[in-house]
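Researcher: Next entry in the queue.
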Amino acid sequence: MKKNTLVMLGGFIIAGAIVFLLMAATPGSSGVELTMKELLANQQDYKDDFVTVEGLLVEDSIKWDADKIELKFDVKDNDGNIMHVIHNGTKPDNFSDGVITILQGAPTQKNTFVAETVKTRCPSKYEGEDMKNYDPETHKEKLNQPPKEQ
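Model: Structure for this entry, 150 residues:
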């Protein structure tokens, strides 16, 4: 074989190996995103998949074991479906009643989900007001007020 052919063949093999390693290192890219209702209805179908699901945290259900670094809690959806979650990792900071939790992991037993990652989305109390109610004059008044002395 010619030298150029060998160099190109080696380049293709290296590029293929890099693509393979990138795909193997990102399990979320091969995962499935489901609603909690879909997951609970067909839990056995997704037991071998990397699943992303979200629900509202039920605050009374939080059980934190600092010795084992294990977090157990329940999430619910708007239809009243409840799912038990087990997470071997730290508890997110913004963990309070009604906060939206985004879970990534795998379903195990009936209505139970083992989460590799637990993220929270800010509740609506942190969202801004509707722009229809915006009054530019009030904004100008607040900007023109002298600073408060301490």
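Model: The longest helix spans residues 3-25.
Researcher: Noted, moving on.
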